[in-house]
Design brief:
Elements lengths: L1 E3 L3 E5 L9 E5 L7 E7 L4 E6 L4 E6 L6 E4 L6 E7 L4 E6 L4 E6 L5 E6 L4 E7 L4 E6 L10 E6 L6 E5 L6 E7 L7 E6 L4 E6 L6 E5 L9 E7 L2 E6 L4 E6 L6 E5 L29 E4 L7 E4 L18 E6 L3 E6 L9 E6 L5 E9 L5 E9 L11 E8 L9 E6 L3 E7 L6 E6 L9 E5 L8 E4 L6 E7 L4 E6 L5 E6 L6 E5 L11 E7 L4 E6 L4 E6 L5 E6 L4 H6 L11 E6 L11 E10 L4 E10 L6 E8 L11 E6 L7 H7 L10 E4 L4 E5 L10 E4 L40 H5 L24 H10 L4 H25 L2 H12 L16 H4 L2 H8 L18
Antiparallel strand pairs: 1-2, 2-3, 4-5, 5-6, 6-7, 8-9, 9-10, 10-11, 12-13, 13-14, 14-15, 16-17, 17-18, 18-19, 20-21, 21-22, 22-23, 24-25, 26-27, 26-49, 27-28, 29-30, 30-31, 31-32, 33-34, 34-35, 35-36, 37-38, 38-39, 39-40, 41-42, 42-43, 43-44, 45-46, 46-47, 47-48, 50-51, 51-52
Helix pairs in contact: 5-6
């Protein structure tokens, strides 16, 4: 017999008549926090669940070697059982409202039944390979209580007891009866009675208890052994014994505080077939009486075994969701069609997770980056908002390997974005309630070396979402201040331009732009507005926009179910692209699914998009749906789609083939284009001199991370024949896109933010820096000069033959005397005369193997 009290676990052998032979196992827990106990008699280990530490722990019979196997996430485990034949722990989590199983070391976990209303008790029958568990339901939600039976792998769940006499069932026990006339027993705190029924749930009846009118009595745990039923009464502080035939009871033991669960552990009962030492399961072996092998090889939740029976470390496609105090993973391609969230990390020190991104590399490395924030405590005048950025291995669970790479005490890090070509992390900081700093956009090293560089810090009010397009050297961010807007700039903070402002059609009612993302396949920008309740799309220049989703898209649903709207106040966006194998292989058509979160109304929704061409007018939306109508997520803030196979353009080779892979920068490196990189200087190093340099393209892959950071190789690309699908191939940035930013007159290379400090040259130095910034090297300038000289000679020759020497010489002098610095061109089809002849050469020589169609250029001086 095993039962917990205030801060100890009692172990009493039933093989002797003297029940006073009580072995007390002390445990280090707070009083009245042990909710359930179980035992592995083969290894002499006791498992127990607690409320004060939110987890499952184990200890040997002497009270030594107390360890935790699951304690990193907020839970409320009300019941647990140990299957010592398979070394698995089954437990009911009433916080997550689910039934789970885990290995006894806590490393492998799987959800067996999700979506329960309010689960409590659990019992295993290792003979029939069946488990029984209770769901007390919810009167307010009109969910009645139920008792379920299912195979021990979670398959074939069935409600075997419903309705009367269930009121508020709590704990459950099972007597297999050696396969004949077995019974289940349960306690009901609503009626304060003990009941029994057959293993099929038939003929339920009361066998013991005090009834609801007995003041002071509270029936809790129940166990069965040798024709006798034992149950605890926490109100009367006693353990009672009763028979199954007569409704009598007698005091078995008394004088114990905080009684709850009680178990009878029998070593003689074991599995009939199923998971024994001969099991070859890679992850978890779970008993199943309904298959010939009597076992099921199971992987983690959302992951299915490969043909060889092995289990991938992570799902192929999943969502990373930051839910205020936790980071979770939701597999999208679950064959069952269910969406189950698995905790990856929880903030237990007052911080809350509010932003997330990730990084995959060619070496099989996978990292999750996420931001945390902490509100001021108010103690002793503490009014400081604190934030930090963490990095965690993507292939780990339970928060293993998490490390802090950057911290702030000047405001809230609202959002983060990882440059997958360098590994640098960009973030927006809202300096709320702080007079020591301004709101800004900045970047830090993704490896934890600090080296913060402020890029934009003027005329920013409340920056929030941020997105990157590294192959086009472009970043976007939202600002929900006054006035609200969406802005763009180069990734060093220069050439800043608003692309969406209040009053701009069709976003005239822009109120609270929260997040922004870039569709790398169509070069469209998507943003969400929590104030207006819309999701919109526009081009990089903001000259064409369309509202994709709005509250009015669901008028019928809005009238009938106002609390289940798919979009109310969208907060975060992410996008999933489908490979050509999942759609019609039309190069002009892109199919995607757009996800968004709504923390205020606890929603996570999506819409399917079919985009034709590269215009917002070609977007067709279908299948608007709510992914998680009933979820355990609390305020799902940020959401990020991850595909292990379908990578971002250049993601896998970016860290090894882009210019920064061979850079000599002392601090931070930024890829300007395919041939040039820029060395940035941290804010904390005042004497640093930034520079821009060309580099030769590496002829072989060059690792950019030390061996100590190397992770296991992630799975190869699926659906890969002789080459990757076209939409997955690394796309080279268009040269005219890099040059032609269509900036407002007067901005040029001037930066409104701190990022301008990375170009502190003046005069010719500024011009040279601009040329280098665009990827124009010295060899190209020599070619341009020669072409220019030939052009001048041609002008003189034509002038002589036309007898208009004075006019032609005057025009040639004007051109030769022009020293206009190279600036982003006003349009893709009009270039300054000094570059008219050089641009085609630059395009072909500096961007080899470009798949983009060359754009025609014209000049007002071509008639000369």
């Amino acid at each position: 017999m095993l039962f917990p009290t205030a801060n100890a676990i009692h172990f009493i052998s039933q093989d002797v008549d003297d029940y006073t032979a009580d072995v007390v196992v002390p445990v280090d827990v707070a009083a009245q926090t042990i909710t359930s106990v179980a035992m592995d008699p083969i290894n002499g280990v006791i498992y127990y669940a607690t409320l004060d530490t939110f987890g499952i722990h184990r200890v040997n019979l002497t009270g030594e070697n107390q360890t935790s196997i699951l304690d990193e996430h907020p839970t409320a485990i009300t019941s647990l059982e140990v299957d010592y034949a398979t070394q698995n722990v089954y437990f009911v989590d009433s916080y997550e409202n689910r039934l789970e199983v885990a290995s006894t070391d806590g490393r492998r976990r799987r959800v067996l039944h999700d979506g329960l209303v309010s689960p409590t008790g659990l019992a295993l029958d290792p003979v029939s390979l069946t488990m029984f568990y209770i769901d007390t339901g919810d009167i307010d939600r009109e969910e009645s209580p139920k008792i379920y039976s299912a195979a021990m792998d979670g398959s074939s769940p069935e409600a075997i007891v419903t309705g009367h006499p269930l009121n508020h069932p709590l704990y459950i026990a099972v007597d297999n009866g050696d396969g004949v006339d077995g019974l289940i027993y349960w306690t009901d705190v609503g009626t304060n009675m003990v009941y029994c029924a057959s293993l099929l749930g038939e003929e339920p009846r009361a066998i013991a208890g005090f009834g609801p009118l007995d003041i002071g009595s509270v029936v809790h745990g129940v166990a069965f052994f040798g024709g006798h039923v034992f149950f605890t009464d926490s109100g009367l502080r006693k353990i009672y014994e009763s028979t199954t035939i007569l409704m009598d009871k007698s005091v078995y033991m008394e004088g114990f505080n905080y009684l709850s669960d009680i178990k009878i552990v029998e070593t003689r009962k074991g599995h009939i077939g199923g998971c024994l030492n001969t099991s070859r399961c890679d992850y978890l072996c779970l008993p199943n009486p309904n298959v010939p092998s009597k076992q099921t090889c199971a992987c983690a939740t959302g992951i299915e075994p490969l043909p060889d029976g092995s289990c991938p470390e992570v799902p192929n496609t999943f969502l990373l969701v930051a839910g205020q105090n936790s980071l979770r993973r939701i597999a999208l391609d679950n064959p069952s069609g269910e969406y189950v969230d698995i905790p990856l990390y929880d903030s237990l020190d007052g911080y809350g997770v509010n932003a997330v991104d990730y990084l995959l590399t060619a070496r099989g490395e996978g990292y999750i980056y996420f931001a945390e924030m902490k509100t001021p405590s108010g103690v002793a005048g503490d009014n400081v908002w604190r934030s930090r950025i963490r990095r965690q291995c993507m292939f780990e669970q339970n928060g293993d390997g998490s490390e802090i790479i950057h911290e702030e005490d000047t405001g809230i890090i609202e959002d983060i974005a990882v440059d997958w070509t360098t590994g640098n992390v960009y973030f927006t900081l809202n300096a709320v309630g702080n007079s020591r700093a301004d709101s800004h956009v900045a970047m830090v090293s993704g490896r934890g070396a600090g080296n913060k560089v402020t890029l934009v810090n003027t005329t920013l009010h409340k920056p929030r979402g941020i997105a990157l397009h590294p192959l086009q050297n472009t970043m976007f961010w939202t600002d929900f201040g006054d006035p609200p807007k969406v802005e763009t700039a180069r990734m060093n903070g220069m050439s800043r331009t608003p692309i969406i402002t209040r009053g701009q059609m069709p976003f005239s009612n822009l109120l609270h732009p929260n997040d922004v993302i870039v569709d790398l396949n169509t070069d469209l920008v998507y943003f969400c507005d929590g104030g207006a309740g819309i999701i919109g799309a526009t081009t990089f220049l903001g000259n064409a926009g369309e509202i994709i989703v709005a509250v009015d898209d669901n008028p019928d649903l809005r009238r009938s179910q106002p609390t289940k709207l798919f979009i109310r106040k969208p907060w975060s966006l992410t996008m999933r692209h489908f490979s050509p194998s999942d759609r019609d292989d039309d190069p002009e058509t892109e199919e995607a699914e757009l996800f968004w979160s709504d923390p205020e109304f606890h929603l996570m929704s999506s819409v399917s998009l079919v985009t034709t061409g590269r215009s917002t007018t070609g977007i067709e939306k279908t299948h608007l749906r709510n992914i998680l109508e009933r979820t355990t997520l609390y305020k799902p803030l940020a959401v990020q789609f991850v595909s292990i196979d379908g990578h971002k353009p250049g993601e896998i080779t970016g860290l090894t083939t882009m210019p920064c892979s061979t850079h000599s920068c002392e601090y931070l490196c930024l890829n300007i284009n395919a041939t040039h990189f820029h060395c940035l200087c941290p804010d904390s190093v005042p004497n640093c001199r930034p520079r821009t340099e060309p580099t030769e393209r590496p002829t072989r892959l060059t690792p950019t991370t030390p061996p100590s950071e190397t992770l296991p190789q992630h799975p190869p690309l699926r659906n890969q024949a002789t080459r990757a699908p076209p939409h997955l191939l690394p796309r080279r940035p268009r040269f005219h896109t890099l040059l032609n930013r269509n900036e407002p007159a007067g901005q040029g290379q001037k930066s409104d933010g701190q990022g301008g400090q990375t170009m502190k040259q003046t005069g010719n130095q500024e011009e040279e820096g601009s040329l280098q910034d665009l990827g124009v090297g010295g060899d190209v300038l020599v070619v341009a000069f020669v072409l220019f000289a030939v052009f001048v000679v041609g002008i003189l020759y034509l002038s002589h033959r036309a007898r208009r020497k004075y006019d032609q010489v005057d025009r040639a002098t004007m051109i030769l005397g022009s020293e206009t610095p190279l600036r982003p061109l006003p349009s893709p089809h009009r270039a300054p005369p000094i570059l008219t002849s050089a641009l085609p050469l630059l395009h072909s020589s500096h961007l080899p193997n470009s798949h983009e169609e060359k754009q025609p250029f014209s000049s007002p001086h071509e008639t000369v």
